[in-house]
Every structure is written in C-alpha cells, then in structure tokens.
Amino acid sequence: MTKLWAGRTEAETAQLADDFNSSIAFDSRMYKEDITGSMAHAAMLGAKGIISQAEADTLITGLETILDDLRNGALQIDPKAEDIHMFVEQVLTARLGDVGKKLHTARSRNDQVALDFRLYLRGEIDELAELTKKLATVITDKAEQYKDAIMPGYTHLQRAQPVTFGHQLMAYAFMLLRDLDRLMDCRRRLNLSPIGCCALAGTTYDTDREMEARALGFDGIVLNSIDGVSDRDFAAELCAALSIEMMHLSRLSEELILWSSWEFQFIELPDAYTTGSSIMPQKKNPDMAELVRGKTGRVYGDLMGILTVLKGLPLAYNKDMQEDKEGVFDACDTAKMCLSVMAGMLPGMKARIDKMRKAASEGFINATDLADYLVTKGLPFRSAYKISGALVGKCIKEGKTLDTLSLEEYQQAEKLIEADVYEHIDLDTCVQKRASAGGTSVSSVEKQIDSVRRSLGQYHGEND
Ligand code: ARG
Asked: Is it the case that residue 363 has pLDDT exceeding 90?
C-alpha cells in the first residue's frame, strides 16, 4: 500500500521495517477517539473557511459512516495499516476521493495521536473512577455491617489493641476515596486539548483551537504547541495514581488472604470467588485476592515503562513515543479488572465474629488499657506501663489472661488496683472508650462511615 507520507523517499520500505513500525495492533483501540477528533477538526476547518462548508460536511458524514461501519463490523481494521490515524484517513480517501485528502490540513499525526491518547484516557479515568466509587461503597457497607465486631488490631503483625472489623475496613474506604481524588485530579490536568499544535510549531492556517477543544469536551487548550506534542505526563500520572490504588488493593488482598487462612479464620470468602485445589480436597484458595496482589506488580512495571520511555527524549515528538500506549492501556485494563473483582467478591465476605473476638481476648491487647487504668488511679504512665507489663509477664508464665487474674494478684502487684479494673479491661469497654476522632468506637466508626458516604455522594462522574 502506498504510504500517505510517501514523497521524500524513493525506495519501498522493507516488510520487516513496516511491521516493526506499525502500531495498529494496539492503537486501533482508539478508533472512536481518532474519528470523533477528526470530525471536530473537519468542522473547525469548515467554520474557519480553510475548506468549504460542503467539504467539511462531506468529511464529517464520511467519518460518521466509518465509525458506524467499524462498530457494526461492516469495516474491519486492516492489521497491515501503519497506525489508526493512517487507516482512517486511507479509508476516508478511498471512499470520498480528493475531499478525503483535505482532512489532514492544519494538523499532524503528532497532535492527532496526543489528542486521541488524551481522549481515550479520559474515558478510562471515568470508568476507573466509577469502579473505585463502587468498591468504596461496597467496603463502607461491609464496615457498617461489622461496626461492632471486635478483632485484634495489629502492629508488626502482633496483636496490639482491640479494634472493630468495621474500623479496619473503613481504613480502606478512606484510601479508596483518596484514590478517587487522585484520578479526578489527573483528569483535570489531562483535560486540555493538544489538537492544533500540529507537528510542533503550530500552523500558518487561521485555525480555532478553542472551538475544537469545546467540541471535544476539553476545559481548554494546551498553550505551548511543543509541550502539546511532546509530553505524556498525563499518562505517567495516571499510571502513578493507578499504582498507588493497586498498592491499596494489594494490601487489602494480603489481609483477606491472611484472614481467610486456617491460622486466622477471621473471614470466609464467598465460594464464587475462591478456588479449590486439584489435589488437596480441604483447600479453599483465595486466588482472586492473590491475583490482585500479583497484578499490582505489572501496574508498577507499566509506570516504570512510561517514565523510562520519556526520560531521555529531546523535544518534540520522537517515535519512541509510540511505546507510550501499551503499558498505560495495560495499567487501565488491569486496574479495572481488579476493582471489579474486589467489588464483586467483598459483598459475599462473611466475618467469623466469634473467632475474631476470641483472638482479641487472648492476645493481652488490653494491656494498654490496664496501664491507662493505673494512670486514672494517679500513677505516671511510664510506671503504669511497667506494672502492666509485669502482670502480662506473670500471666504468660502461669497461662492466665488479664481478665482471669484475681483481685489479690492485682493488688500484690499494685495496691491502687481495685475491683473496677475488670470493667476497664473488658474488650467492649476498651473499644467503646476509644471514642477520639477517627478512633475505633462504634460511634466514631459511624461518623467515618457518614463522612465517606457524603464524599462519595458529592462525586458525580461523567457516567452518572
Ligand atoms: N503511531 C504514532 C504514535 O503512536 C503516531 C504518530 C506518528 N508521528 C510521526 N511523526 N511519525 O506515536
């Protein structure tokens, strides 16, 4: 096929070079954006009298028909085409003749690809935001269901202080809320139009970039044409936001894996989202959570990929930049899948409240509360801490817990201790007393749930 750019060179390019050069295998997924971008461009060319209004209308109808044909399968993407931009223009010219050749006036593939990529990623961000919102809602609902289920809270993976399962889950809801915020922030910076930057220096034609930007739903235009065709920071930023979001999903996955293990037995994952072993009949494997944890690595890889492609490039466009897409697409696809699977799995997760409570009552996680009790009796915290520690040591030696020590044993250690100690170190008291802002008490967790629901309610995505 004759190249649209043939002219400068005489000899045909080698087949191997053509194959190597081609990006149609992955940029064809931007066909819709490429065509709607071209329609806006044709409309602007017509409105500004750069081509006649009749020609603009012909181009727009031709592009619309190509879009329909691609959607309903009447037209197939040619895998031999160089890229999606060339493919659309070639089909258009084949169908319309000379008018088709006017579409590329006052633009270049450099601003065209930057436009397509921004439009495509904007759509991805809207889907990702919707899914993030969905998952945050699912987690918040679960937190409400278990707002008074007591479990051990951990530091260093050692039982530390009693918390509620609802409190622990709400930590993830807040993380997802920030992930949503990061996506919207990225969208805001991305949503400027590069079309009209042309090859790099702008154009001699009297174009109206603002008009094209408005038609395509942008908030404005990229003000430096070299910047417009050179940078892909919006794609790197999206990968960074997704890497952070995947890191959150991965930590949640890790906890789901631990909690569903025989050692913890804190939760049961729904059958629909677990697998069995081909050899060990007793097993119920948390494969979905493990895959989310595993896929986090590839999203980090995608971020490194785009940063590395860009880091040494002189301005403006370089063909290296064709390598900007696959990794970013992969990051979006992967994150969308992981968010969907998590949101599908978590509603069916059941907490084993009895096991959680038992673990909480065995780990001396009320030792801080015993120390706090001694402080209320007048001891300085450091001395109280020492006495509480010594009593824990005694319990471990004698196979007891703090609530099974007798009052005599308590008073031998510290005579200020009275019978009201038992109420102070009771698990429910320990939780209810942590009513400080953000703390684990039921009323505090209820406030957290309200706050997240309010924030989620304020966010309205493009698809709402
Ligand atoms: N397929 C190319 C890409 O993805 C489109 C831009 C080509 N521009 C050029 N000057 N060769 O980057």
From this structure: no
Contact 164, 150 (CB under 8 A): yes
Centre of ligand 1 to C-alpha 19, Å, is 14
Which ligand 1 atom is the nearest neighbour of the CA of 317?
A: 10
Please confirm, yes or no, whether 277 is among the known catalytic residues. yes
Ligand 1 centre to CA of 354 (Å) is 61
The reply to whether 156 belongs to the active site is yes
420's CB contacts (< 8 A; 6+ apart) are: none
Strands 267-268 and 350-351: antiparallel
- Which tokens in the block code for residue 399? 């196979």
The residue whose C-alpha atom lies closest to atom 11 belonging to ligand 1 is: 319
Average pLDDT over residues 368-395: 94
Bridge partners of residue 267, in order along the sequence: 351
Residue 223 Cα to ligand 1 midpoint, Å, equals 21
The contacts of residue 225 (CB under 8 Å, 6+ apart) are 111, 196, 197, 198, 200, 201, 202
Per DSSP, the chain holds a count of helices (H) and strands (E) of 19, 6
CB neighbour list of residue 351: distance below 8 Å, 6 or more residues apart: 146, 149, 165, 266, 267
Reported as a pLDDT band with limits 50, 70 and 90, residue 2 is: low
Q: How far is the CA of 75 from the centre of ligand 1 (A)?
A: 23
For 14, other C-beta atoms within 10 Å of its C-beta total 10
Q: Does residue 311 surpass a pLDDT of 90?
A: yes
Residues within 6 Å of ligand 1 by CB: 23, 27, 83, 109-110, 113, 317, 319, 321-322
Predicted pLDDT at 10: 74
Query: Among the atoms of ligand 1, which is closest to the Cα of residue 84?
Result: 1
Q: Give the model confidence (pLDDT) of 392-447 as tens digits.
A: 999 999 999 898 999 999 999 999 999 999 999 999 998 999 999 999 999 999 99
pLDDT in tens, 43-58: 999 999 999 999 999 9
pTM for the full predicted model: 0.93
